[in-house]
């Protein structure tokens, strides 16, 4: 599978769901009742596409980043 955009786990307050979104696509890749299930799906997707996984906190701030396969070298600041 070719490289895609970053994979994000984001909480959507209105729906009360954690969603898996890929940068550059319009569709949501998955909706989950728990952050853990969304994280599991997003991690597998990021590993398969060799992308970066960005996990957001409930307030929208970035809580965690993981790179699977295509990190910059040398690493960013």
Write the element-wise H/E pattern from the N-terminal end onward.
EEEHEE
The DSSP helix count reads: 1
- Mean pLDDT across the residues is 89
Q: Helical percent range?
A: 10-25%
Which strand order does the major sheet show? 3-2-1-4-5
Record field, number of beta strands: 5
Distance between the termini: 29 Å
Rg calculated over all Cα atoms: 12 Å
Which class of secondary structure composition applies to the elements?
alpha+beta
Tell me, briefly, the overall form.
globular
Major beta-sheet overview? 5 strands, mixed
| Percent range for β-strand residues | 35-45%
Low-confidence spans: none
How many domain units?
A: 1
Notes on the protein architecture:
The protein has one helix at residues 35-49, and strands spanning 7-12, 17-22, 28-32, 52-56, 62-67. With 77 residues, it is of the alpha+beta class. The protein has one domain (7-67). A five-stranded mixed beta sheet has the order 3-2-1-4-5, with helices on one face. A hairpin with a 5-residue loop joins strand 2 and strand 3 (28-32). The chain is globular. The chain starts with 6 loop residues before the first strand and ends in a 10-residue tail after the last strand. The model has no long low-confidence stretch (mean pLDDT 89).
Main traits of this protein?
77 residues; alpha+beta; five-stranded mixed beta sheet; 5 strands
Topology:
Blueprint: E1 7-12, E2 17-22, E3 28-32, H1 35-49, E4 52-56, E5 62-67
Parallel strand pairs: 1-4
Antiparallel strand pairs: 1-2, 2-3, 4-5
